[in-house]
Amino acid sequence: MANLKAVIPVAGLGMHMLPATKAIPKEMLPIVDKPMIQYIVDEIVAAGIKEIVLVTHSSKNAVENHFDT
Questions:
Q1: Which of 11, 26, 48, 68 could serve as a FRET partner for 57 with CA atoms 20 to 30 Å apart?
Q2: How many domains does the chain have?
Q3: Which residues contact 7 (CB under 8 A, 6 or more apart)?
Q4: Quick one: pLDDT at residue 1?
Q5: Does residue 28 sit within a domain?
């Protein structure tokens, strides 16, 4: 298998999802027990892709903090 990489753009401000995204980035909105972005990353890892790049906005500390833990 080729050395695949995943690029996930998460830099948008989520204006179409207001007011839900006023306090939390759209990719961090919870679905059942974890943020939406975690489900996406879990599926990528399950597909065997080992390198994942998240393209974020400088104000999206919640995304970085989630994956730093």
A1: 48
A2: 1
A3: 52, 53, 55
A4: 59
A5: yes
